[in-house]
Amino acid sequence: MSEFDERSLNGMSIFAKVVDAGSFAAAGEQLDMSQPGVSRAISRLEARLGFRLFDRTPRAALLTDDGRRFYEQIAPLLAGLREAAATASGNANSVRGRLRVNVDPFFSKLLLGPRLEAFMNRYPDLTVELITRDRLGDKVIDGLDLAVHFGEPRISTMRARKLLETRIVTVASPAYVERHGRPLRPEDLGQGGHVCIESRHTWTGRPSKWEFHRGSQQMHVETSGNLIIDDSATVLNACMAGHGIAQIMEFGAEKFLAEGKLIDLFPEWPDKRFPLYALYLSGSHPPARTRAFLDFLVSLMERISHAPSRGIERMARGAALPER
């Protein structure tokens, strides 16, 4: 690349805006530029860098591998520059602009959605865009500020903060047990006599393994179900309707277990856990809007930890763990 100058910085800012906005046209609207103007700026930056940032087609512009790596390198730096500018102008703590958050739909429906009004009222100059889907996908292409998802994170360029940890329980409805009988051991699930509802793993997109943990002891059971679901709420509802046996998060299911609408089949295997993490771009100074939403999430988890339900208390374990 030729000598770094103001034009290079301007090109990088436009490039980051295209990634964040999702298209040249959307970036142009936010920057008050024409789409051809944005395209020319990206072409000039590509010429200075010596590699393509986007693969352009008539319908879309997709990040190249080089473009994705470049974005991962410059995004924290640009965020730091914006934060430094805010600090210099006395607005370091000003929470404004647009915050894009990818949230697990089960968590969003159960806890986040009903409590968003307080956050929005506190920050009237902030626009929050929530994208709810079970799989995280490519965070760089999505141009997100924050992601909230279950499972151990696998994106090395992100910082991760654990919000809670929920127990995994193997359950069936009373109607299912009446029709098929109750399995006596986890191994019974792999012997063809029971119907198992398979769920897709948040990060891999593949059916989750059926594991059972008891202290240091672990067991893996091969199951084969003809129903595979990628949404936690749908797995729960299908199980309650009596279709089959499922492994679900205790998070959100305590009421049904307490009321007897679901049966914990193997309470002697209680130690399989599943975490919920908040993920955000690595950097020493996250934007004020990101810090504000993180603080809101941590506060929400702390309130849950003091709820009267013993199940909620167990789930909130780790809510105030430090960033890693």
Provide a descriptive summary of the structure in words.
- This protein has helices spanning 6-21, 24-31, 35-49, 65-88, 105-112, 116-122, 139-142, 174-180, 232-240, 254-258, 288-305, 310-315, and strands at residues 54-56, 61-63, 97-103, 126-132, 146-150, 158-172, 197-199, 210-214, 217-221, 227-229, 246-249, 263-264, 273-281.
- With 324 residues, it is α/β, with parallel strands linked by helices.
- It has 3 domains: 6-88, Orthogonal Bundle (Arc Repressor Mutant, subunit A), CATH 1.10.10; 97-156 and 276-307, Periplasmic binding protein-like II (D-Maltodextrin-Binding Protein, domain 2); 165-273, D-Maltodextrin-Binding Protein, domain 2, CATH 3.40.190.
- The strands form 4 sheets. Strands 3, 4, 5, 6, 11, 12 and 13 form a 7-stranded mixed beta sheet that branches. A two-stranded antiparallel ribbon has the order 1-2. Strands 7-10 form a two-stranded parallel sheet.
- β8 and β9 form a beta hairpin.
- The longest helix is centred in the first third of the chain and has 24 residues, at 65-88.
- The radius of gyration is 23 Å and the shape is elongated.
